[in-house]
Amino acid sequence: VDGATWTTIWVNPTTQSDNYWLLMKYDISAVADNHATVYVRWGMGPTDEFITYPGWNIDDVELWGVAHSTCTGVLLGDADGNGVVDGRDIQRFVEVLINPYSAGVTVEEFCAVDTDADGFITRDDLNGFVQELLNP
Questions:
Q1: 56-109, pLDDT tens digit by residue?
Q2: What is the arithmetic mean of pLDDT over 28-54?
Q3: What DSSP element (H or E) covers 91?
Q4: Given its phi and psi angles, is residue 131 left (phi above 0), alpha (psi -120 to 50 degrees) or beta?
Q5: For the segment 16-39, what is each residue's pLDDT rounded down to a tens digit?
Q6: Cβ of 88: how many Cβ atoms within 10 Å?
Q7: Which of 64, 83, 67 is nearest to 75 (CA)?
Q8: If you write DSSP's letter for every residue of 14-42 in order, what string do you get?
């Protein structure tokens, strides 16, 4: 997180020569959480003149994070933002529930769908939404 001290997340334990693309995922939250800046680097080597391998092809690198914002003033369950929780919120609630971290989801929509206010959108939020619909 400082650009000078590095934490190793993964090291190849053996000689590796893959014949197909592999999906690799690494959780860096233990190092990255609660830091405004995170640096990521990777390297390859060392090697020598006696053994050669094909190297790695790295493609489609994605870094995912969750930014927690204040939800003050957002009406729980009001996924369409019209100030009331009613049947018109159902479609947007489901859309946000299915893909809460898509670029099209606003902070207000995220907060409205996070009915248990834990900072995450999961199926646990369904019960709170139903309660808001039935008991406005």
A1: 778 888 888 766 678 899 999 999 999 999 999 999 999 999 999 888 999 999
A2: 79
A3: helix 90-98
A4: alpha
A5: 777 888 888 888 988 988 777 889
A6: 13
A7: 83
A8: S----SS--------HHHHTT-S------
Residue 89 contacts residue 128 (beta carbons within 8 Å): no
Q: Which residue has the tokens 């369409």?
A: 80
Question: What are 117's two structure tokens?
Answer: 């206010």
Rg (CA), the chain: 22
Ramachandran region of residue 12, left (φ > 0), alpha (ψ -120 to 50) or beta? beta
- Beta-strand ranges (E) seen in 52-133 are none
3-class DSSP assignment, residue 44: coil
Exposed/middle/buried for residue 32 (C-beta within 10 Å: 0-12, 13-18, 19+) = middle
Burial class (CB in 10 A: 0-12, 13-18, 19+), 120: middle
Residue type at position 66: V
HSE-up of residue 114 (Cα within 13 Å, Cβ side): 20
